[in-house]
Each structure stands twice: as C-alpha cells, then as structure tokens.
Amino acid sequence: MDALLEGLDPEQRAAVEAPRGPVCVLAGAGTGKTRTITHRIAYLCQRGHVAPSQVLAVTFTKRAAGEMRTRLRSLDVNGAQAVTFHAAASRQLRYFWPRVIGGPRWDLVDQKIRVVARAASRLGMPTESDALRDLTSEIEWAKASLLTPEDYPAAAARAARDIPAPAEQIMKLYTTYEQLKTEAQLLDFDDLLLYTAGALEDNAEVAQEFRDRYRCFVVDEYQDVTPLQQRVLDSWLGNRDDVTVVGDANQTIYSFAGASPQPLLNFGRRFPEAVVVRLERDYRSTPQVVELANDVIKWARGRPSGSRLQLIGQRPDGPKPRFHEFDDEPSEADAVAGRIKTLLDEGVAASEIAILYRVNAQSEVYEQALAGLGIPYLVRGGERFFERAEVRQAMITLRSAGDVSGSLPEVVRAALHRVGLTDEPPTGGSARERWESLLALVELAEEFAAATPDADLPRFCVELDMRAEAQHPPTVEGVTLASLHASKGLEWDAVFLVGLVEGTMPIQYADGDEAKIEEERRLLYVGVTRAREHIWLSWALARAAGGRKYRRRSRFLYNLVPENHPAARVSAGAQRPPLMKKEKPTCRVCASTLVEAQAVKLGRCRSCPSDVDEELLESLRRWRAGRARELKVPAYVVFTDATLVAIAEQRPTDSAGLVAISGIGASKLDKFGDDVLGLVRAGVGYSAT
C-alpha cells in the first residue's frame, strides 16, 4: 500500500484515498490524472473495497483506454474493465440481446455515410461527399443530444447550429435514415448506447444482473460527456453513487458534437456529499508554458468559479514563449520549418515536435516547407499505424519467426530484415515511410524488453496485438502535423501554434456567438498545454506571398503578447476585434444573456439553481457588519446583500474575479478587496464546484 501511494502529491493522494462513493477530480492539463485514477482503482482493490472484476472505467478513445489498461496491469490490477463508452455498451448489448430484444443480433453499420447517402438520395437531397459528411454529423449530434427527428429543428435553432440544409429537410433525412437502418436490421454506434440504456431502464432483471456485476465506476474526460453517454452512465449506476469522475471544464472542445461540461460542473449539486479534489500541479510543462496557458484561459467568460483551475508549473524554467508576425503564410511556414531545423540540430527528436492548426487545410504549406528542408513529418489523422500494409506484414513475419536465440530487439530486427528493414534508411518517399514503420517496431521491442522481465517474441507479439486493438501505436520519427482537435490527449517537447488570425482562430462561423467563441479560446488553451518546453505562436497578415495584408492576429493574443514585443503592434489598418469590447453578460449556469440588474450581479438567471456557500455568506455578513460599524455607515454602503450573495456564489479568488462582479469597482476593491478575498480563500477548500 505504501508503494502504491509513494510519489503522489498531496492532492493526488487525497483523490486516491477518498472513500468509496461520489468523487470528482478536477484535473488540469499535465497534472497526472491518468496516474491518479489508475492508482485510485488499485487502492480500492487492494483495500478490499471492490474486486477488480467489479470495476468499469470508461473513457472516450481506444488509445486512452489502452493506456489505462497498461497502467492497471503494471499495478497488478487484473480483471478491471477499461474501455470506451461504445465498447462497454457493445459488450453489454451483445450479452443481453437474447433476453431484451430476441432473435439474431443486428449488425453494426460498417459505413454510416452510405446509409445517409441512400436516405438523402431518396429525398432528393445532395449526395456529394462533403454534404454527406455534414449531414451525418447533424444526425450524430441529434442522437448524442437525445433528440428525436421531431425535436431536431427547434433544438438546432436553440443551439444556433450552422446546419448544412434546412432543418425540416434534416429532420426528414434523420427519419429516413432510422427507417433504412431498421429495415436492414442495423445499428449505428449511437444505437449501442441507446439500446443499452433502454435495456437497463426497462428490464429490472437485466439491470439487477448488470449492477450485481459492476459496483464501481470511473469516468475519464467527464467534461466531454454527451447527454446520451450521461444517460448510459445513469442507467449503469441506478440509485447508487459509487462513481469517480475526472475532468477539466477548461478543456471542453467538443460541444459541436453534443458534449457538455454541465454534468461535471453540476456534480457537486447532484451529489452534495461528494469528495472534490483539485489537481493543479502541472508536471508536463515549464513554468513559462504554464503561465501562458493560464493567461489564455483567465480571460474566458462564463466560467463558474469552482471550475477555474490555476495551473502551477512544477518543472524547471524553460525558454520564453515565442510570438511572430509574418507578411504571408509561406513566410510563416518557412520560418517554422527553419526553427524546427534548429531544434533538430540541438537534439530535439522530430517525434517530439508538433505543428498544430485550426483546420486541416492549413497543413499543405507546412508540408511543403518541411519537405523543402528534408524534415520528415506525419500528418495525424492519416492511415493508422497498425493498418499499414508493411506493419501487418511485419506482424505476420514476427508470429511465424519461431524459436530464435538472442535478445528480443535482436530477434525482431533480424526478422524484419526479411521484409525490408535495412541498416541504413532509404531516401525519401514511400520506401522511407515503410522503413520508419519497421524501425518503430524494433524500438517498441527495445522498450518492451526494458520494461518486461523475461521478454520474448511470443509475449511481444501479444503486446503488439493489444496495442493494435487499442490503437496505441509506437512513436514514428517525424514532426507531427495535426489539427488542434486531433492534438487532445497528446504532448510534445515543442509545439508550434500557427495561423492564429481572426476568422481561423476563432473560426469565422463562431463570430457573434459567445459560447462558440469561448470554445475556440479553450481550443487554443488545449494547444498551448500540449507543449512541454518550447511554444511558438504565429500568424500571417496575407495568405499568399505578396498578397494584400488584410488579416489581423487572433483576438485571443491581445493580452498575451508582451507590450514591448515587436509583434505587439496592431497591424496598419487593422482594428481590434469587435468582441474585445465589453460583451453582454451571460448566465454562468445556462449561458443565457442576462438583462435584469440583479441577475447581472449574481451572474445567473433567477431560475437557475444557486450554489451559494452558506458558511462563506455568513462570514461575509459578519465582516460587513464590523466594517460598517468602523466606518459609521449603513451596511449596504459597504456591500449590498445581492453583492454578498454573488460573492458567496461565484467565490472569486483573485482581484480580476472580484471586480467581474457587478457593483465592485476599483474603489471598493482598494477598500475591501483583501478582506473579501481572504474570506473566500479560507473557505474555498470545502466548495464542491
């Protein structure tokens, strides 16, 4: 038990040792959340609170689930389930199908877009590939949001969806799509979740059997849960509360797909007795990167105070962030490639460098610039590692290699020599890419041999099969090019955030919608927090070389670039973005625009639930009475009752948060700010959200 807790910081240890029951871990980027939750599972199992086979841990990607399983195995926790939501639902539905539905099990849709194409063709709607992708995304959003076809038009209007066709047409398409699936006896991925939830909700015997099987639940990346996934989780739990959720509202970047941070933000209200732990020590990034990340997110609007994580860098100092403005995109790309060449010459591995952009179309100019300098690169989102022809061939060769003497890396290298692994790499092109893939398998064998006693070829082949299923590829040497969304969950020594101009970051269709603008800000925050040491932010004033310089840098950079930095100037003729002006106040719970003065002061609609800290409110009232006596003024002159309630609800921990409350200006901040912040900080430890 001591070995299990050794090396954990105080907050991680508090999360690991929390008793069974509802636990909420608010985990900032780089704070060791996966380590924390796997150690918590191991701790509960070793203490005898739960058997490994009674644990169900779910996350959102096969890669994350695979990493969780690997860590649990290293902690001698065998039998715990660590899977994606869809994988868990698929297994459960397969098991319960005969009792719940009966008859042959329906197949899973292989290509959903083909069914959408048939539905669109039947209705006379566009069937071009781009249109079909957009229409498919709308159906997926509707199902993830628990919307029927009839619900879709009104819900899309409320959510201000940028829809690819009239809402009534999409409603008909959604209806026809569901009919075609039913006729063919097919299920899509969302159906796995819907049918599983329905089976547990409608069949008491099935629900009881499942709940006897699983007693303890862990949900990773809880800020990205959709209403459909929350419904499945609720059906798993029943009336129980043995659930640990882990998330960071600052990293909610998938609301366009139906994800919502509300279950995370409301966890303390749903489970008032929940243990809430905040992980804010960042072990990934240097203090300079951490400071930049904090500066990006601190300007966000509409964040409940309890969700505001302030990262604290734990690594030694590193280089300062670099900001650069260029005349055009080719100049920006050439400069990025040049800087990467310098980093490579200084010993930074190519696989530890990433170029991140907002949209995939931005990659081309960087591919050209890297190729021009002979720098290898990989475009993330291409063919998966274990699906490449040379990797499949290599795995067949390794399985048939037989009993060969020598160390595992030597055996693997010798076997792969027969399928093209030469001592020296070939020059460029597809041959070089094949060679890099084979070499990555050898390097993986070296890692496996170093970590596993008595490692041999059969065990290594099993490890490869597990990684292939989990989509957990080894590192292939090359600079990564990826969208900001695709970078979630990854990290590199050096990160280049490029193309940071208005209309791209934030994306043009977000303009005028505060909720979408804030999601774009969080996306930039995710990008910054991918960097361990080197961080570069750049933008170009024109797209083509010699083009008109009509662009301006992203509004998110205006408070980040140092005032004395050459890039801090506002480009000639460019105006600051309109949203830099004071924006309309919105409810921190439901994001609706606030109109009434008292609602503005409280920061929420009257109809939205209050999360007032009663102990803090009472402390504030006693303090106000004392100050009013000292100053010989009525109590309301110090602060009105509504202002005290707003403070006790929002619980600001710094001056910026305090003056954000309507009615607290510079004068009252000077007179009373230190006293109020001291009272809030003294009580923030017992706040749930």
Q: What attributes characterize this protein structure?
A:
single chain; 689 residues; alpha/beta; six-stranded parallel β-sheet; globular; disordered C terminus
The number of helical runs is: 28
Mean pLDDT: 85
Structural class based on helices, strands and sheet pairing: alpha/beta
| Main pleated sheet | 6 strands, parallel
Task: Write a structural description.
- The protein is built from 28 helices and 16 strands.
- The strands form 4 sheets. It has a 6-stranded parallel β-sheet. A 6-stranded parallel β-sheet has the order 11-16-15-12-14-13, sandwiched between helices. A two-stranded parallel sheet has the order 4-5.
- The two termini are 30 Å apart.
Offer a concise description of the structure.
The chain is of the alpha/beta class. The chain is built from 28 helices and 16 strands. The longest helix has 23 residues.
Secondary-structure blueprint:
Blueprint: H1 2-5, H2 10-17, E1 23-27, H3 33-46, E2 55-59, H4 62-74, E3 81-84, H5 85-100, E4 107-108, H6 112-123, H7 129-144, H8 152-158, H9 167-184, E5 186-187, H10 189-202, H11 204-213, E6 216-219, H12 227-237, E7 243-247, H13 262-265, H14 267-270, E8 275-279, E9 281-282, H15 287-298, E10 312-313, E11 322-328, H16 329-345, E12 353-357, H17 363-372, E13 377-379, H18 389-399, H19 408-417, H20 429-451, H21 457-470, E14 479-483, E15 492-497, H22 514-528, E16 531-542, H23 597-602, H24 614-631, H25 635-638, H26 641-650, H27 655-659, H28 666-683
Parallel strand pairs: 1-7, 1-8, 2-3, 2-6, 4-5, 6-7, 9-10, 11-16, 12-14, 12-15, 13-14, 15-16
Helix pairs in contact: 2-3, 4-21, 5-10, 6-7, 6-9, 8-9, 10-11, 10-12, 15-22, 16-17, 19-20, 24-26, 24-28
